[in-house]
Structure formats: structure tokens, C-alpha cells
Design brief:
The protein is an alpha/beta fold. It folds into three domains: 152 residues, 3-Layer(aba) Sandwich (Rossmann fold); 144 residues, no CATH class; 72 residues, Rna Polymerase Sigma Factor, Chain: A (Orthogonal Bundle), CATH 1.10.1740. It contains 15 helices and eleven strands. The chain has a seven-stranded parallel beta sheet, sandwiched between helices. Strands 9-8-10-11 form a four-stranded mixed beta sheet, covered by helices on one side. The radius of gyration is 21 Å and the shape is globular.
Length: 405
């Protein structure tokens, strides 16, 4: 099990990786009402829109992970904020993590989208940060490496790692309440995305705007596309497998369109425990940052159950969501298969967002990519990174064939 909370302490000085994304934006909102938590350092990739707010929150260090953005903007940013230390590229971000730790930062919230969060997570473990993990691709790409690295550290010295995904954070809270032998199954919920009731014959014609119109959550474009095809939920199953040390047979997904219940535990006697809240990332972000302390004041988005919509649950339809089963198959295969899955999916979603392929081509090309790449059962970090590269290369070859065809 990767989740580790015994050494967790409430966050006092935070490093926020991915400060300009949807998780980063919600984290900034939370920090405005938490004077006890100071934002010491942050990273953004390309967008500088959040910079004034980050400065107002007191950052001393900023990493611009896109090297071109760093080169273009370093001097102008320093002219406006001469006391700010600026780092460029991925190596710069890793150096920022080390410098911030030396200056007293105690927590890293990894909200970087995609496999790019992997090296940052590993470096944060090495630096003994408390890690609030909002980057599922880290565990999907190299779950065995992260697990082995954490387990190689004596439990009394092991850095805390807490999940920030709403479903996994809810599972974590439920699991703290129940003795393990009582539990039969962990259940993640999924909204079903914008096409839950769309006739199957019409899915081939859906456009970019429709795919990005999520019914209950406001997220970045990549995760919104993943959610529309339930690939996001398949990745979350793989993440849950590593986070909680449960077999894939012990993890289930149900569609819950209202997004009020985020996770359930099925107990051995046939009863269920549920974790529910208004669909807002404020809840898991605040819980992970402040754990093990209790927040005494309800979030402004909180609503009592009498104001919730009627709740319903449905099975996942494999015809409507073929990408979901592709993810589960990769998880069952294990080894480097999830790494190839994640890398290929990132490339295909990027191609869809650029208008190069249709929405329904994502699972088709994803399946074809996984058939073409060879995989291994166990390897080093370098091996998993190489699998990531090979899968991306295979996707690009397939995309060229699609254009020619």
C-alpha cells in the first residue's frame, strides 16, 4: 500500500506544482482563507495568468517548466519581482523542490497533468516531503517503482503520501474508519460524462465542444476528455490498486451522475458505507493539506443532504465506454502495460484536442497501440520511462498512418 499517513503533519509551508491548472486554482482559493499555510513555491507550465495571485500569496520561488516560456519571460518577471527566484524546465523544478525544502517547505501538492509529475513525486519522496498526490499518472506510469521506493524506507521515517483525487481521498477517509477484515470491495464512482445517455450511433459525430462540456465537474481539457470516455476512471482504478494495495478484483466502478457520492466501501455483510460531499475539489485538497488536523469550518460550497439531488447508480456500459475496459486490461496485465497505456492516451487526447482525430478514435488507437508495443513484467525507473517514450512514438506512427489513410 502506497498511502502513508503515520508521519503526516498539517501543512505549514507548501510547494504547489501545477499552480495554473484546475487543481492549482482551487488550491489557491483554499489558501486565501488559511493564513496558517504559506505558499512558498509554485510551478506553472505555460500560463502566467496566475502569477499576480501567486505573488500575493507570498511565493519566493517560481518554476516555469516550459523552457521556451522560461527564456521569453525570465527577465521581465525579474524586473517586476526582483526578489523572486525563477527556475526553468523540469530540472529547474526539481532544483526548486530541493531549495524550498532547505528553506522550510514541508508539503508538495503535485497537480501537474500527465506523466511529467513522476520525477517530481520521486524527488519529493527523496526530500522527505509530505506529498499530496493529485497526479494519478505518476502511479499509472511507474506504480511499482514508487511502491518499492516507499517500502524501502523504514516506516517510522517514511514520508506521508495522501491522495487528492476526490474518489481516492474519500476512500482513504472511509478506510480509516473500518477494520480491513470487514471490507469486501472498494468502489469508485464516475459521473458518466456528457455522453451517458447519448445514442451510441451518435457518438461518432460528437465534437470538441461537446466532449469538453462535463456535466458536474470543472476540470482541465485533458482530464475532461478522459472523463467523457471513462478512461479517466480506468486510470483511477490502477491508481487505487497501488494506493491501497488491493487487487483489481477488489476494486469496482459505478456510474453516479449526480457526483455527490465519491466512493463507497462494500462490507462483507453486504452493507455499504458512502462518502459524500458537494462536487468540489476543495474537500479533498483541504483534507490532504491539513491532515491529520480537522477543519472546524465548513467550506463555502458545502450543502446539506436535503439540498442534494436524488441519487442513482448505474453499471458501466462497455459498448459506450470501450476505453474503460482497455484500462482494466492493462492494469491486470501489470508491469509496463499501464505506462504504455498512459503515454499513448496522453498523445491521443492531445491529437483529439488539436482536431487530428475524432473522439471515438481515442480508444480504437489506444487499443491498437497496446497491441503493438512489447511490455515487461518488472523494470527500473529508466525502463518505465523508456516504455513511456516508445508508446508515444508508436502513437505518432499510427497517427501518420491515419492521416495517410
Amino acid at each position: 500500500m502506497i498511502v502513508s499517513q503515520s508521519n503526516a503533519r498539517p501543512t505549514r509551508e507548501l510547494v504547489l506544482l501545477g499552480a495554473s491548472g484546475s487543481i492549482g486554482t482551487t488550491t489557491r482559493q483554499f489558501l486565501k482563507g488559511q493564513p496558517a499555510v504559506r505558499l512558498q513555491a509554485a510551478s506553472v507550465h505555460r500560463s502566467l495568468d496566475s502569477l499576480p495571485e501567486l505573488i500575493a500569496l507570498g511565493i519566493r520561488r517560481l518554476a516555469l517548466t516550459d523552457p521556451e516560456v522560461f527564456e521569453r519571460n525570465q527577465e521581465s518577471i525579474l524586473s517586476r519581482y526582483p526578489s523572486l527566484q525563477i527556475y526553468g524546465g523540469e530540472k529547474g523544478m526539481l532544483q526548486m523542490l530541493a531549495d524550498a525544502r532547505s528553506a522550510g517547505a514541508d508539503t508538495v501538492l503535485t497537480a501537474i497533468v500527465g506523466a511529467a509529475g513522476l520525477t517530481a513525486t520521486i524527488r519529493s519522496i527523496e526530500l522527505d516531503y509530505k506529498i499530496a498526490l493529485a497526479n494519478k499518472e505518476t502511479l499509472v506510469t511507474a506504480g511499482p517503482v514508487i511502491r518499492d521506493l516507499l517500502l524501502s524506507i523504514p516506516e517510522k521515517e517514511r514520508p506521508a503520501m495522501l491522495p487528492v483525487d476526490s474518489e481516492h481521498n474519500s476512500l482513504f477517509q472511509l478506510l480509516e474508519l473500518v477494520r480491513p477484515e470487514f471490507i469486501r470491495r472498494l468502489i469508485l464512482t464516475a459521473s458518466g460524462g456528457p455522453f451517458r445517455t447519448t445514442p451510441l450511433a451518435e457518438l461518432q459525430q460528437v465534437n470538441r465542444k461537446e466532449v469538453l462540456s462535463h456535466p458536474t465537474w470543472s476540470m482541465g481539457p485533458k482530464i475532461t476528455v478522459d472523463s467523457a470516455g471513462m478512461i479517466n476512471k480506468g486510470l483511477e482504478v490502477i491508481e487505487a490498486h497501488f494506493l491501497f494495495g488491493r487487487s483489481y478484483e477488489e476494486i469496482e466502478v459505478v456510474i453516479h451522475p449526480q457526483s455527490q457520492i465519491h466512493a463507497l466501501l462494500e462490507l462483507r455483510d453486504g452493507s455499504y458505507l458512502m462518502a459524500g460531499a458537494t462536487p468540489s475539489m476543495l474537500f479533498p485538497i483541504a483534507h490532504a493539506l491539513m491532515y491529520p488536523n480537522v477543519l472546524e469550518t465548513a467550506h463555502h460550497v458545502a450543502r446539506p443532504p436535503v439540498e442534494w439531488p436524488a441519487l442513482c447508480f448505474e453499471k458501466v456500459d462497455p459498448l459506450r465506454y470501450p476505453g474503460f475496459d482497455i484500462c482494466l486490461n492493462a492494469g491486470h496485465r501489470g508491469g509496463s502495460a499501464p505506462a504504455a497505456l498512459n503515454a499513448a492516451n496522453e498523445e491521443l487526447v492531445a491529437a483529439f484536442l488539436k482536431g487530428e482525430i475524432g473522439f471515438c478514435q481515442i480508444p480504437e488507437l489506444l487499443d491498437e497501440t497496446l497491441k503493438r508495443v512489447s511490455w515487461f513484467a518488472k523494470g527500473s525507473l529508466a525502463d518505465y520511462i523508456e516504455m513511456d517514450r516508445r508508446a508515444r512514438s508508436e502513437v505518432q506512427s499510427l497517427l501518420k498512418q491515419e492521416v495517410i489513410a
